[in-house]
Write a structure and sequence with these properties.
CATH architecture of the largest domain: 2-Layer Sandwich
GO molecular function: DNA binding
Strand order of the largest sheet: 4-3-8-7-6-5
Order of helices and strands: HHEEHHHHHEEHHHEHHHEEE
Protein name: HTH cro/C1-type domain-containing protein
Structural class: alpha+beta
Distance between the termini: 49 Å
CATH topology of the largest domain: Beta-Lactamase
InterPro entries: Cro/C1-type_HTH (IPR001387), Lambda_DNA-bd_dom_sf (IPR010982), MLTR_LBD (IPR041413)
CATH class of the largest domain: Alpha Beta
Number of helices: 13
Length: 289
């Protein structure tokens, strides 16, 4: 759909003038529908005004993820307050809105078009996959929450015969097979930097449901994982943002112990934080053992 048709589609079904009672009702209905449709980890249970239970995000949880009081979020959801575009994009991400839902939210909120395209999914998967498959270097594509969405064969070869990671942070910090057999120098080379990276990510995007869920999982795992619990305390001693250009030690099934360099692109889009990450060996792949 081209831009003109998309704008027309986004405006279809909107009634009333901006700020009118009719548009406030539509705005509230949109946010409530999206909020109750969210599934972030174990389903959250909310109590409706009639006492029935509904899965999804409660107003309290949504307000917390957005850094608001429950009253402030309630006023926003009812269309009583206007917010800047950056805040509306945070809402779109927290509520897992589609591009169309986000577009309509902006129109209902302030009558303005969204400032930039938005996607919670990859619009160019074939091209991204081709870019990965064209490289002999192990590589993957992940989102802001470190979910691995695309990989290439060279990356899968690193875990030949083992469980393939689906989330970078969860694999590095919680998977015990990883620390014992794949990620060499686990404590200082992998765990500490990524614990600090998770903290930095949460400070930057406290509204991101996936990051919040990961933090809950880390705290749950640390209750019975003494090494992880110790490192979580030590991780507060320093700051760390991302590992681009850093070296890490892994055990490759063909190369043996290998010091790789982590190279990553900037986020491909601001909304999802998708980026390519490459594991680069110390010399050309053709010269590796």
């Amino acid at each position: 759909m081209n831009g003109g048709k998309y704008v027309t589609a986004a405006r279809q079904g909107l009634s009333g003038t901006p700020g009118s009672p009719a548009q406030k009702e539509q705005f509230q209905a949109l946010l409530v529908r999206c909020r109750l449709a969210v599934e972030a980890g174990p389903p959250e249970v909310a109590i409706t005004t009639r006492g029935r239970r509904s899965t999804g995000l409660s107003q309290e949880r949504t307000a917390s993820m957005l850094g608001l009081s429950v009253r402030s979020y309630g006023d926003f959801e009812r269309g009583l307050t206007h917010r800047e575009p950056e805040f509306l994009d945070r809402v779109a991400s927290v509520l897992h809105m589609s591009a169309h839902e986000r577009h309509v939210m902006f129109l209902l909120s302030n009558g303005q078009e969204p400032p930039q395209p938005f996607t919670n999914q990859l619009d160019s998967i074939p091209a991204y996959q081709l870019a990965l498959d064209s490289s002999v270097l192990p590589g993957y594509l992940s989102n802001r929450c470190w979910d691995i969405e695309l990989t290439n064969q060279a990356f899968r070869d690193v875990w030949a015969g083992r469980e393939l990671p689906t989330n970078v942070l969860r694999y590095i910090l919680i998977n015990k097979e990883a620390r014992e057999h794949v990620l060499l120098d686990w404590e200082t080379g992998w765990a500490l930097p990524f614990l600090r990276q998770q903290r930095a990510a949460l400070n930057t995007s406290p509204w991101e449901a996936g990051l919040v869920q990961l933090q809950h999982e880390l705290h749950d795992a640390a209750r019975t994982d003494k090494p992880l619990r110790k490192l979580m305390k030590h991780s507060m001693d320093d700051e760390y943002v991302h590992p681009n250009g850093d070296t890490r030690l892994i055990h490759h099934p063909k190369w043996g112990p290998t010091r790789i360099t982590l190279l990553m692109t900037r986020p491909l889009d601001a909304a999802s934080g998708h980026r390519f990450v490459w594991l680069v060996p110390p010399k050309p792949v053709s010269q590796m053992p």
